[in-house]
Design a protein that fits this description.
By secondary structure, the protein is of the alpha/beta class. The chain is about 50% helix and about 10% strand. It has a domain at about 5-40 and about 400-665. The protein is built from 25 helices and twelve strands. The strands form three sheets. A six-stranded mixed sheet has the order 8-9-10-5-11-12, sandwiched between helices. The radius of gyration is 32 Å and the shape is elongated. The N and C termini lie far apart (about 85 Å). The structure holds adenosine-5'-triphosphate. Adenosine-5'-triphosphate (ATP) binds near residues 126, 142 and 282. Adenosine-5'-triphosphate binds next to helix 4.
């Protein structure tokens, strides 16, 4: 049996409080801690690897596109993605109805081209983008089927490197743009790159994404203004480009940006496409100049495909065949958006617009093969050739300690530079110490001062815990999202992240309880010796860290900051009730006895009471009066315990919450919806994703298609477009 300071492990883990539940909790904590420090642990990967073909197939495609190798000379491995019969349905158990979020959607995205998925709000743009990127969150109510082909082979996003730029740009606010990119590069790029090479790479990314002018500005957040929204979006893109992805998915990259910033972001995406990336973005309603940057578009409405193919004039020519002509000087994107939107202004307009949309969707379904897949895919030999030409470096993930030091640096920069938050925390600590110090001003040694002392120490314990908890639950859910995203890229493991966070926050986190103690202690005239003052500060500091650790668990448990703000204080209230002051440990009902043992408030209160009362003499007149501090401790059922025991118990609680956080973060991996094969009826028209050969010359084909529309579709009403007025 391993010994810890002369004790056996069994004794050491003898609980948060010494037995029962405490033992179990501490044992869990120790076993998790062991896991935390043994090896880098898995990066955040999904459980659905099996969803996409077999390993051979995956390796085959991966080999063809150079998976696992990061080109440093700017070359991008070309990836063509084709999809067909993509159907995503959402079942509603209560009404037993099924709603189609995507209905038989098909399309193609090619390297060197910028594809925009356009459509009205709720038309399924983000859903389609997520399906293509393999990022559609799994839900028992969803059913997803279809065919997805990567470079001519049925495959998935696992077979190529891709970047996913989400709508929400999340960063560590106190880092500069350059630091954010450098750290991302250090975490993602192979270790064998020298510092100079890495810096050069970061500089080239800054230049490429137009971030040079703001390279040394703080990223900022809602509290402190940093870089602009457009710059944030481009920084997101830069961070995603570090791993040299073949495909870039961007979900509504212009949302929330002004027209100028939106255009700059879209120009960046266009340039990335020109560099050889396959770029797919969803966009709601771009301005004209943005629309003309697209090479291809997919038009969706109510989950149905209305058009997919080349952008610019082609869709206008296509729709003019049905009598819908885009007037001169009208933004084509607006024209298209109006054409495929349901007009809810009156019952009649809803009927007419719905009819028009259904007809257009039906028409496109009939003739999409003449518009899509006009060019054949690059041959596999072509990919192999491009692979031989490039300069490659074998990707190797940094070790545990390397990840730890990098993350420690980042956590320290974030914690120490957060001036506004630290100032508020310092002011709050001093203000609450002054308020409590004034209320309990210079307590004497009377009998009534015993109750005052207990009240003050309980309030000090509650205040310290609440301050640390609310600070943590206020920021951690957002940080967790960043960490989840980074871990999804395989940048680092959880162990180094949590340890670096704990260590980096020690100096800053300790400063506030120390300030609180330094002001309160002399004001209230607590036990006036230096060593007791030191112990007072030590106890509240450890308690503050334990409360922070609990805040991490709450933040890892719930999805949002708001939910964490609701759950955290409620949970803490339970620990306050069993904090040793309101309910005496000896009077606690048996079924609740475990709560005081795991209550950080109780242990802090107990430690503070022992520190304060031990050796104190009180004025007394009657024999039944409390004469010594030891007697006061007996009344609280704290007699016989030592400060070191309470600090150890607090440390175990801290450890327990950290390990629980680890477990929760590890278990809460995102699960993505699996793409199932479509049913045979869906695919009977065209199961092979091959270029459709047609014997007819283009003009005849067009005539045939138009006739087909005339004969097979309901007649299309002439449509008066708002944009055309
Ligand atoms: N997991 C889900 N559960 C329930 N409904 C969903 C789910 N995913 C998508 N939807 C619904 O599917 C429809 C399409 O959503 P999606 O986000 O793809 O639309 P969008 O075209 O991107 O819209 P916007 O432009 O407003 O972002 C919406 O009505 C949405 O509420």
């Amino acid at each position: 049996m391993v010994n810890f300071g002369g004790k056996k492990v069994g004794q050491v883990v003898a609980g948060i409080g010494g037995n029962g539940v405490g033992q179990v909790l501490a044992a869990v904590a120790v076993s998790l801690l062991f896991r935390l420090f043994t090896g880098p642990g898995p990066a955040l990967v999904t459980d659905d690897d099996s969803a996409y073909g077999d390993d051979d197939e995956r390796n085959d495609v991966a080999e063809a596109i150079g998976d696992g190798e990061a080109p440093v000379d700017g070359k991008v491995f070309p990836v063509t993605i084709r999809w067909q019969n993509i159907t995503c349905s959402l079942s509603d158990k209560s009404s037993k109805s099924v709603r189609f979020l995507l209905n038989n959607v098909r399309g193609e995205a090619k390297p060197g081209r910028l594809l925009a998925i356009m459509g009205p709000s709720g038309s399924g743009k983000t859903t389609l983008l997520n399906v293509l990127a393999g990022q559609l969150m799994a839900s028992p109510r969803l059913h997803l089927s279809g065919l997805l082909e990567v470079n001519g082979k049925p495959s998935s996003n696992k077979a190529y490197k891709f970047a996913y730029v989400r709508q929400e740009d999340l960063f560590f606010s106190q880092l500069t743009v350059r630091e954010t990119l450098s750290l991302a590069a250090e975490l993602q790029l192979p270790e064998i790159l020298s510092v100079e090479e890495r810096d050069e790479y970061v500089n080239s990314l800054l230049f490429k994404l137009g971030l040079v002018s703001c390279a040394d500005s703080n990223v900022g957040d809602a509290k402190v203004r940093g870089i602009s929204g457009g710059e944030k979006k481009r920084l997101s893109l830069a961070c995603e480009l570090i791993a040299s992805p073949s495909v870039i998915y961007a979900d509504e990259p212009t949302t929330g940006l002004d027209a100028f910033q939106a255009e700059k972001v879209m120009e960046t995406l266009r340039q990335l496409a020109q560099d050889g990336h396959t770029v797919i973005c969803s966009i709601h309603q771009p301005r004209g100049s943005v629309y003309f940057k697209f090479d291809d578009i997919v038009l969706l409405t109510e989950g149905k495909l209305v058009y997919a193919g080349p952008a610019r004039d082609e869709p206008l020519a296509y729709f003019s065949r049905f009598g819908y002509t885009c007037p001169d000087h009208v933004n084509p994107a607006e024209f298209l958006a109006d054409l495929i939107s349901v007009d809810y202004s009156s019952a009649e307009s809803v009927y007419l617009s719905q009819k028009r949309i259904d007809s257009l969707a039906e028409s496109f379904l009939q003739q999409s093969s003449t518009i899509l897949y006009a060019s054949p895919l690059i041959s596999r030999e072509g990919y192999k050739k491009s692979k031989l030409q490039k300069r490659t470096i074998v990707k190797k993930k940094g070790g545990w300690w390397r990840q730890f030091w990098l993350l420690l640096r980042r956590a320290w920069m974030q914690a120490s530079r957060d001036g506004p938050t630290n100032k508020v925390r310092a002011r709050m600590s001093i203000a609450s110490a002054i308020i409590f110090g004034s209320v309990f001003w210079r307590m004497g040694r009377s009998q009534t001062s015993i109750q005052d002392r207990m009240g003050l120490l309980q309030v000090a314990a509650i205040n310290t815990a609440m301050a640390a908890l609310t600070k943590t639950v206020g920021v951690f859910p957002k940080e967790r999202t960043i960490v989840d995203r980074e871990r999804a890229k395989g940048s680092y493991a959880l162990g180094p992240y949590l340890l670096s966070k704990l260590i980096a926050e020690i100096p800053v986190g300790a400063a506030f309880p120390l300030m609180f103690g330094a002001v309160l202690y002399p004001m209230a005239r607590l036990h006036p010796t230096l060593s007791r003052f030191g112990k007072f500060c030590g106890i509240v500091t450890v308690e503050s860290f334990a409360a922070s650790a609990m805040g991490l668990t709450v933040g890892a448990m719930v999805p949002t900051t708001e939910a964490a703000m609701a759950v955290g204080p409620s949970l803490m209230t339970v620990f306050i009730v069993f904090g040793g002051y309101y309910v005496n440990a000896d009077n606690t009902p048996i079924i609740f006895r475990w709560i005081p043992r795991v209550s950080l408030i109780r242990w802090a209160f107990q430690g503070l009471c022992i520190n304060e009362f031990l050796g104190l003499q009180f004025d007394h007149q009657h024999s039944f009066d409390i004469q010594t501090g030891e007697q006061a401790l007996e009344r609280l059922s704290f007699g016989g315990s030592r400060i070191s025991d309470t600090v150890m118990a607090q440390s175990r609680i801290l450890l327990f919450w950290y390990c629980t956080t680890y477990l929760l973060l590890e278990k809460k991996k995102p699960k993505y919806q699996q793409l199932e094969l479509p049913n045979p009826e869906q695919t009977q028209q065209k199961i092979q994703l091959e270029p459709l050969e047609t014997d007819l010359p283009p003009e005849k084909e067009q005539i045939k298609s138009t006739r087909q529309v005339e004969s097979e579709s309901p007649p299309l009403d002439m449509y008066n477009l708002e944009g055309a007025k």
